[in-house]
Structure formats: structure tokens, C-alpha cells
Write a structure and sequence with these properties.
Length: 205
């Protein structure tokens, strides 16, 4: 009797084995309309449920925290150490909510398909260039700065970029700053051109 009870407890606690799949853990098993026809399906952990063939499910869908290289995982997947993925060229490497996020091109370089940067406050953006008290460096000073430093004011040098890298959110804002400054320079130059045209017109009279 004890032997029968032990076998029953083993299957209940550690899993059931079938030709179609392997289930380890209390209440682990197949689920869904195709649960009796699943092939090579596996469910591991308490209340783990698998509903597709060739599927591997770790733990309960609402409770599981999988740790690799650590004993106290805090997230659904918590990895300590180097994480490596192998993928074919021009195929999605990483998806978020079924949307392609990261892929590898034919040169082996990563390609971000779509992303958005968020800023904490308006001061991090570059529209301050259009504020009345913004100091727009005269072009003569810009020319001297470039001659001395070989890069634009308020932008990192090539040496700094190689040494420290760049923060994408800051760089986008700084590049926009330069575009907006160029717009102001263009407006100034247009005013000067219009004034010169007016003077020339007066001289021709």
C-alpha cells in the first residue's frame, strides 16, 4: 500500500510522463483543446501549463520567476552573467509584444526597428534655443572655436566620444540644438540680405 501511495505521490508532485510530453511539478500538465494531442510539449514547475506542441513552459504563468546564475530572481527572467542569442541574418532577434525590436543585418550589425526616447522635463529638449535670453554665439566666435577645437561648441569631440561614448537622448537634443541655432543664423542672414537689397534699391533710384 505504501508503495502504491509513493508512486501516486511521485507522479502528482514531480510530474507525469507521456509519449506526447513531459510534466514536472505539482499540477503541471497540458491544457487547452489540444492537450491530449500535444507532441514534445513540456511543463516544468508548480502549476505550469503548456498548450502547444514543441512548447516548453517554466512555472505558473502568473507567479514564476526564473533565475539563471542566481538563487533569488526578482523578475520573470533574471540572468546573472553573459547572455547570448544566436539568430540568422535579417531575422528578428528580439521581440516585445510580438513586435520586432532588434535584428541582425547581413553584416552582423544590430538594427533597432523602432524605439522612442523619453525625457523627464522640457529643459532636456532644445527649444530653449528660441527663448529670449538664449545666448547665440556670434559666427565669428563659432569660427574661432572650431579652429581651436575641431568640433562645434557644446558637442563632444571625437576623442571624448571614443573614450566615453554618447548618451543617445542627450546627443539627439544637442544635434537639434545645432539645427535650431542654424535656423536663427539663417534668419539673421536673411534680414541682412533684405536690408542690403533695400539699400541697393535705394541707390539705384
Amino acid at each position: 500500500m505504501k508503495k502504491v501511495y509513493f508512486i501516486f505521490s511521485f507522479f502528482l508532485t514531480f510530474g507525469a510522463f507521456a509519449q506526447s510530453g513531459s510534466y514536472f511539478g505539482r499540477y503541471a500538465g497540458g491544457v487547452g483543446v489540444n492537450q491530449n494531442t500535444l507532441e514534445r510539449a513540456s511543463a516544468i514547475g508548480y502549476n505550469a501549463k503548456v498548450s502547444v506542441s514543441d512548447g516548453l513552459v517554466l512555472g505558473d504563468t502568473s507567479l514564476v520567476k526564473v533565475g539563471i546564475g542566481l538563487s533569488n530572481p526578482k523578475y520573470r527572467l533574471d540572468v546573472k552573467g553573459i547572455f547570448n542569442m544566436r539568430t540568422a541574418y535579417n531575422s528578428p532577434s528580439f521581440k516585445i509584444n510580438d513586435r520586432n525590436f532588434l535584428e541582425l543585418d547581413e553584416k552582423g550589425q544590430f538594427v533597432l526597428n523602432s524605439f522612442k526616447m523619453k525625457y523627464d522635463n522640457e529643459k532636456q529638449w532644445s527649444d530653449r534655443v528660441f527663448e529670449q535670453n538664449y545666448y547665440l554665439m556670434p559666427l565669428k566666435e563659432v569660427e574661432k572655436f572650431i579652429a581651436k577645437n575641431n568640433h562645434l561648441p557644446n558637442l563632444p569631440s571625437a576623442t571624448e566620444v571614443v573614450k566615453n561614448g554618447v548618451a543617445m537622448d542627450e546627443m539627439v537634443s544637442k544635434l537639434l540644438e545645432k539645427v535650431e541655432e542654424l535656423t536663427l543664423y539663417t534668419i539673421q542672414q536673411q534680414r541682412e540680405i533684405d536690408a542690403l537689397k533695400k539699400e541697393i534699391k535705394q541707390l539705384k533710384k
